[in-house]
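Subject: mismatched residue count in predicted assembly?

I count 281 residues in my input, but I want to confirm that the predicted structure covers every chain. Input:
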Amino acid sequence: VISLAHYLAIGGVMFTVGSIGFLVRRNLLFQLMSIELMLNAVVVTLVAFNRMRQDDHAGQLFAFFIIAVAAAEAAVGLSIVLAFYRLRRSTRSDEASILKH
Amino acid sequence: MIVRALFAIAALAAIAGSIMTISAKKPIRGAMALLLSILGVVGLLVGLHAQFLATVELIIYAGAVVVLFVFVVMLIGPDPSGSRDWRAIVSRTIAGLAVGTGAVAVAVALSRTSGLARMPAAHTELGTVEMFARELFGRGLVAFEVMTVLFIAAVVGVMALVSKKGAPRGSIDRSKEGQP
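Triage response: the counts match. Full output below for your records.
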């Protein structure tokens, strides 16, 4: 029988993989993709909890808003990557040190 | 039986796609692996009786976000700096082991909790467009309207970021490259 724990485990593993990717990759594109992975993991978790408590649709509603915010975040993040690439001819996040000093 | 097969395929696609996403060498391969992972998530959502949400996820992620990633990868081209960084390899291994062990421990602990083991039978209208619309335009109406403000802000921000006039000083202007 497929239980809630299966879905929670998948969500946890996806979130873990996304956070590892965000921490260890130095390419801004890969970091944005890792953020998308983490948001997807949260969507799976929320919808799985909504499947357990079906009185209302709060979990699916939250997941809907997460998807919408993720779309806006991807657009803004990728345009920031493009602007940074114009400035430095690179997409590595450890070269983004203009505001450091 | 077929539900279990769908779940297994979707779970495998989601997890394998996410691992391939963060371990890919080229960004375009990462984007394609992200697409595989999203397809897996869509399969999981269908298995959870969230049909409308699965459709939305497929349209927005596979149709918009991944295409946007591919466009940016094509605009930037191959990364001139080295794609491998060996400095982070130790911290990468340690972080992966630590967080992965934690996630597995949480999953094992949850699967032993008896209250979470069995899913109740789904409503017939769980996840349908009618139920979702009633919820979205009832309780979620204010949040829905605020979301439009967020989108307008995102559009204005993107236009300000990528316009030539707003380009930061010292950036390379390609329109003057051919001139002496």
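The radius of gyration of chain B is 22 Å. Marking this ticket as 'not a bug'.
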